[in-house]
Inverse folding.
């Protein structure tokens, strides 16, 4: 299962936009969902 999340994290890095330099309070609901998805995948890939 961990290998699946590592592959998914790599796909996320290639496809999804990065929000590291943007203020989280000024993001749209969709952008916040993308940030949450990336965070969830990253946490599961590191476990």
């Amino acid at each position: 299962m961990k290998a699946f999340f590592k592959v998914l994290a790599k796909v996320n890095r290639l496809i999804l936009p990065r929000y590291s330099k943007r203020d989280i309070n000024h993001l749209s609901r969709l952008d916040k969902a993308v940030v949450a998805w990336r965070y969830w995948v990253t946490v599961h890939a590191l476990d």
